[in-house]
Design brief:
Length: 77
């Protein structure tokens, strides 16, 4: 086992394996950072819920106004 070609081959294979693992880990890290970046840019679910709640309130107020206008005009609902 004193063959220098064997040691050079093992060193090259080890270096290749380490390079592949490092590149894979770096790609995963960049993907995770992109995911967190998009989570920060998108509005939260609380804002969507508040928006839906305010739309319901506005629709309710419009319905009340319509009924009051009908009563003022003397129209039976």
């Amino acid at each position: 086992m004193q063959d220098p070609i064997f040691y050079l081959t093992m060193a090259a294979a080890s270096l290749s394996a380490i390079t592949i693992l490092a590149m894979t880990a770096l790609r995963g890290w960049n993907g995770w950072l992109d995911l967190k970046r998009t989570e920060l840019m998108r509005p939260s679910d609380d804002a969507a819920t508040a928006s839906a709640g305010s739309r319901i309130e506005v629709a309710d107020l419009k319905e009340r106004i319509r009924k009051l206008e009908a009563i003022a005009a003397g129209v039976d609902l």
